[in-house]
Design a protein that fits this description.
Oligomer: single chain
Protein name: Stage VI sporulation protein F
Shape: globular
Distance between the termini: 19 Å
Organism: Paenibacillus ginsengarvi
Order of helices and strands: HHHHHH
Structural class: mainly alpha
Number of strands: 0
Strand content: under 5%
Amino acid sequence: MSGKDISKDVLNAVKKKAGKNVSEKDIHKLASGVKPSTIQSEKQLRQLIKQVSSMVKVPVSESTVNEIVNAVQKSGMNPNNMEQLMKMMMKK
């Protein structure tokens, strides 16, 4: 999956799951601030989840935030592999 394909897949997944349109520019702007440490830090990961929620204007309950944080932490995924994270989140 190339970077362009990821953006297209993310946009399509958001539209399909949430019925919301998000621009490719918005996705790139948000993604540019994500670093491997973001996924390793529970506080930063929670902040990222809330940013995405706000961007697509879909509220996320605290229990759902907890589920996402737990899934990311338990997955043992390499924090340098954002493609793996995107695939995991698009399946849900």
